[in-house]
């Protein structure tokens, strides 16, 4: 297995490799789509380079709804293919990475006069279960009468409640899923670099032959040769395509979320609902010690180079949804720990209603630039194989779709408690034992108010290509979302654990703290009211 996600001292050595060979495949974009392509190609023995202009999972892949779901809503819209593929891939991920991708029970309130009605929803769930191979009587879902609903989820009391449908999907930590896939890619020989921007395509005889790259950390510029390039930049995909004169393809849509303390709304299920005002699907569920509420679905017209932020209208919209389902909870703005917003790369199919735009992915070959965009978190492996099928002729290698294992087996130490074992295996997979070998016992305690171990900070700083403080607190760990003030109440201990590996010094830490505080205030806190 190759070297993986090494720390700051090795970055120069990695950069020196860029111009040393012709790459079979260069992947632009370090979200789940690009990570999936790199993993699938490296496992087949291709020479793979992945570059990301910001941090790994900086864009949509750390700002999703964290759900690995089969797409029940797409079944309702008649998109059988997307639903079927999503269900199969959800089951695969739960089998292969059970600590990271976990089942999540859902509860959909049955209210007199609200759509969809019980029988339509139940019919859809029967088909949903059959797709997942759940053939037993009653499938994996059931109907709870009013009394049982109130036992399952005390406090749930929307108008005209008469029962609920209960079913199962899955959830994850999206940024950590990206890291796990990158870990597999790097273990199979892929070189993956964050903060390296693709500045321009290079052409020979009208075909893409390489890229001009710039290292955003040290400022170096590089020209790399590639047999083919995969554009996996998500909502940014049209920008690279414009270098070839291609017409825009995407409709960027913003999805915003709230996190509140779990004790303020201690739900055990994901509460799935249709918003009382417009009938859009909204949900809330327990995640990482908080209750996560989402999502909106709006055309995003802001600058894609600036982090997306929630608006006051979106805050009110999500709070209205919660308080419709839990009217006695009186959840308000003062309860909100943090917010986040992501921009989805949705293919523009001309739908007037953003929520009805197709979530299927698109893959196309434009003169050796393979663009892969759209789609869903759950189906990243299938999307990657579609891109490789187009890339293979350029690379000069045979390609066959397969159902090979995505993740190598996780490791652990016998002395770890079950909770610690699950946590470290979820985040580091086959590297858990080695990376946590020298962790002090007190670092295997959970940070108050979260499911995060103190050890995760030092491990990330040493092994996971941390360049900025927000890499550490918003993506390697999620403390910036889970704790008030972005987790800065713990800044001294955070520094003590991370500084031995980051070696920023006093001035560096002060600069990173100021940068991080500005970021949290602008993009993760409540907007000014």
Please explain how this structure is put together:
The termini are far apart. Strand 18 and strand 19 form a beta hairpin. This protein is globular. Strands 4, 5, 6, 12, 13, 14, 15, 16 and 17 form a nine-stranded mixed β-sheet that branches. A six-stranded mixed β-sheet has the order 7-3-2-11-19-18. 33% of the residues lie in helices and 23% in strands. Helix 2 packs parallel to helix 7, helix 2 crosses helix 10 and helix 13 runs parallel beside helix 16. The chain has three domains: 167 residues, FAD/NAD(P)-binding domain; 185 residues, D-Amino Acid Oxidase, Chain A, domain 2, CATH 3.30.9.10; 85 residues, no CATH class. The model has no long low-confidence stretch (mean pLDDT 92). By secondary structure, the chain is of the alpha/beta class. The chain is built from 17 helices and 19 strands.
Q: Could you give a quick summary of the protein structure above?
A:
The protein is 33% helix and 23% strand. It has 529 residues and is of the alpha/beta class.
Overall 3D shape? globular
Structural class: alpha/beta
CATH architecture of the largest domain: 2-Layer Sandwich
Strand content: 15-25%
What is the top-level CATH class of the largest domain? Alpha Beta
What is Rg? 23 Å
CATH topology of the largest domain: D-Amino Acid Oxidase, Chain A, domain 2
Topology:
Layout: H1 11-15, E1 22-23, E2 25-28, H2 32-43, E3 48-52, H3 72-76, H4 80-96, E4 102-111, H5 118-131, E5 142-145, H6 146-152, E6 161-171, H7 174-187, E7 191-194, E8 196-204, E9 207-215, E10 221-226, E11 229-231, H8 237-242, E12 250-261, E13 270-274, E14 281-287, E15 290-294, E16 298-299, H9 312-325, E17 338-347, E18 361-366, E19 369-374, H10 380-395, H11 418-428, H12 432-435, H13 455-463, H14 469-476, H15 479-482, H16 491-502, H17 505-523
Parallel strand pairs: 1-10, 2-3, 2-11, 3-7, 4-13, 11-19
Antiparallel strand pairs: 4-6, 5-6, 8-9, 9-10, 12-15, 12-16, 12-17, 13-14, 14-15, 18-19
Helix pairs in contact: 2-7, 2-10, 13-16
């Amino acid at each position: 297995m190759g070297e993986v996600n090494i720390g700051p001292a090795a970055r120069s050595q990695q950069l020196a490799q860029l111009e040393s060979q012709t790459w079979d495949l260069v992947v632009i974009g370090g979200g789940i789509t690009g990570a999936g392509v790199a993993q699938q190609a490296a496992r087949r023995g291709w020479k793979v380079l992945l570059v990301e202009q910001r941090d790994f999972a900086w864009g949509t892949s750390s700002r999703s709804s964290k759900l690995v779901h089969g797409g029940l809503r797409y079944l309702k819209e008649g998109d059988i293919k997307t639903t079927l593929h999503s269900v199969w891939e959800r089951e695969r991920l739960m089998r292969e990475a059970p600590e990271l991708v976990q089942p999540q029970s859902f509860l959909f309130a049955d209210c007199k006069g609200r759509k969809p009605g019980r029988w339509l929803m139940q019919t859809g769930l029967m088909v949903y279960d059959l797709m997942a191979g759940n053939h037993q009587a009653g499938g994996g879902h059931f109907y709870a009468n009013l009394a049982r609903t109130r036992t399952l989820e005390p406090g749930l009391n929307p108008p005209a409640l008469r029962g609920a449908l209960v079913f199962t999907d899955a959830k994850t930590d999206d940024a950590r899923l990206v890291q796990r896939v990158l870990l597999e890619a790097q273990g199979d020989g892929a070189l993956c670099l964050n903060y390296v921007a693709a500045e321009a395509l290079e052409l020979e005889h009208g075909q893409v032959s390489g890229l001009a790259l710039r290292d955003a950390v040290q400022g170096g510029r590089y020209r790399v040769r590639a047999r083919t390039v995969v554009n996996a930049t998500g909502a940014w995909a049209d920008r690279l395509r414009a270098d070839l004169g291609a017409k825009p393809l995407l409709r960027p849509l913003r999805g915003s979320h709230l996190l509140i303390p779990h004790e303020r709304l201690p739900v055990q299920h994901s509460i799935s609902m249709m918003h009382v005002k417009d009938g859009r699907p909204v949900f809330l569920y327990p995640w990482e010690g908080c209750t996560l509420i989402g999502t909106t679905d709006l055309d995003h017209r802001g600058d894609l180079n600036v982090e997306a932020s929630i608006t006051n209208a979106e805050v009110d919209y999500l709070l209205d949804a919660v308080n419709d389902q839990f009217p006695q909870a009186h959840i308000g703005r003062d309860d909100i720990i943090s917010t986040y917003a992501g921009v989805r790369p949705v293919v523009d199919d001309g739908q007037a209603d953003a929520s009805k735009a197709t979530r299927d992915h698109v893959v196309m070959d434009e003169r050796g630039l393979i663009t892969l965009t759209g789609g869903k978190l759950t189906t990243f492996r299938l999307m990657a194989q579609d891109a490789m099928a187009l890339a293979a002729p350029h690379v000069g290698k045979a390609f066959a779709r397969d159902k090979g294992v995505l993740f190598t087996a996780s490791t652990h130490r016998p002395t770890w408690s079950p909770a610690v074992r699950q946590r470290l295996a979820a985040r580091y997979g086959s590297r858990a034992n080695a990376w946590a070998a020298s962790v002090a016992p007190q670092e295997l305690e959970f940070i108050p108010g979260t499911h995060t171990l103190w050890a995760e900070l030092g491990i990330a700083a040493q092994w996971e290509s941390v360049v900025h403080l927000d890499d550490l607190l918003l993506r390697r760990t999620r403390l910036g979302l889970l704790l008030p003030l972005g987790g800065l109440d713990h800044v001294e201990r955070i520094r003590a654990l991370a500084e031995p590996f980051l070696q920023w010094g006093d001035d560096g830490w002060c600069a990173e703290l100021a940068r991080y505080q500005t970021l949290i205030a602008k993009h993760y806190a409540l907007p000014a009211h």
